[in-house]
Write a structure and sequence with these properties.
The chain has 269 residues and is mainly α.
Length: 269
C-alpha cells in the first residue's frame, strides 16, 4: 500500500490549544472585562472579528493538512506555515487585544518594564530575525521535523518573537508604537533581512534539507523546485505583505493629511 500524503491525521494538541485560546479570551471579556471596564464596551466588534480571524488562521496553519504536508513532504508548505504564524496571525491577535487586557496581563511593574524593553523596535526586530535565521538552519530543520518537542518549541518561539516584532506597529499599548515614518522604515527593514536565507534557498544546488528529499513528491514538485518555491514564499510573499502595509500607512497618514491641508487652504482662500 503506497503512502498517502493527504491521509487525515488528528492533532489533539492543536485542538486543545485552540480551545484554550478561545476559552481564555472568552473568560477575559466575559468575567474580567466587566470588572475592569464598568462603563462602555469591553471589546469592540472589530476586535472580535480580528480575534476570530487570527485564531482561525492559527488553526489552519497548525492542523491537517498544512501541518502534515509541511512536516513530512514539502518545505515550501513549511515556509507557508511559518509565514502564516509569524506575519498574519500575530498582528490580528494583537489588534484583537483590548488595552485593559494588556494591562491586566503585564501590570505596571516589572512585567511591564520587561515587555516594554522587548518591544523596542531594535530589540524586537533583532529577536525575530535571529529566530527566523535559526529556524532555517538545515540541521535544526532536519531534527525538528522528527522531534516533536523541538518542533513545537520552535513554533512557540517563532510566534512569541513575531508578536514582539509586531508590537511597535500594532501593539495594544500605544506608547510602544513607532511614529508612522518609523513604522514604514521598520517594516521595510523587516522585509529585507529574510531575503538572505530566501536567496540561499532559491539558488542552492542540490537538496538543502535532507528530510524533504524523499521519493513521494506532492503535486509533482521536485526537491529543487520545492526549495525554490519556499524561497519565493519567504522573499516575495512576506515582503509584499509588509510593503502593502507600508503603502497603506503612507496613504493614510501622509497623503490623507496632504489632501486635508489642501482642502483647508481652498476654504481659507
Amino acid at each position: 500500500m503506497g503512502v498517502d500524503p493527504w491521509r487525515f491525521q488528528a492533532h489533539i494538541e492543536v485542538w486543545l490549544l485552540i480551545i484554550a485560546i478561545i476559552a481564555s479570551y472568552t473568560y477575559a471579556i466575559r468575567v474580567i472585562g466587566p470588572r475592569v471596564v464598568p462603563f462602555g464596551a469591553v471589546v469592540t466588534r472589530r476586535q472580535l472579528r480580528r480575534f476570530t480571524a487570527g485564531v482561525l488562521l492559527m488553526w489552519i496553519a497548525s492542523d491537517w493538512p498544512i501541518h502534515d504536508i509541511s512536516e513530512e513532504y514539502l518545505y515550501s508548505m513549511h515556509m507557508s506555515q511559518h509565514l502564516m504564524i509569524s506575519y498574519f496571525v500575530p498582528p490580528l491577535l494583537l489588534l484583537a487585544t483590548p488595552k485593559w487586557l494588556f494591562d491586566a496581563i503585564f501590570g505596571t511593574g516589572r512585567g511591564f518594564r520587561v515587555i516594554k524593553f522587548l518591544s523596542r523596535a531594535p530589540v524586537a526586530g533583532l529577536l525575530f530575525n535571529v529566530m527566523v535565521m535559526v529556524a532555517h538552519i538545515p540541521d535544526v530543520v532536519n531534527r525538528s521535523v522528527s522531534n516533536g518537542p523541538l518542533h513545537y518549541s520552535l513554533h512557540i518561539f517563532l510566534v512569541l518573537t513575531a508578536m514582539l516584532m509586531w508590537m511597535p506597529v500594532c501593539g495594544p499599548e500605544r506608547s510602544f508604537r513607532l511614529q508612522y515614518g518609523g513604522m514604514m522604515i521598520y517594516l521595510f527593514l523587516m522585509s529585507v533581512v529574510p531575503t538572505v536565507p530566501a536567496a540561499w534557498l532559491t539558488f542552492a544546488e542540490g537538496s538543502v534539507y535532507k528530510h524533504y528529499d524523499i521519493p513521494v513528491r506532492v503535486w509533482g514538485l521536485s526537491v529543487t523546485t520545492d526549495q525554490q518555491l519556499a524561497g519565493a514564499v519567504m522573499k516575495s510573499a512576506g515582503s509584499m505583505f509588509l510593503w502593502t502595509i507600508i503603502v497603506v500607512i503612507f496613504f493614510r497618514r501622509f497623503i490623507g493629511r496632504f489632501f486635508a491641508e489642501a482642502s483647508y487652504s481652498k476654504k481659507v482662500n
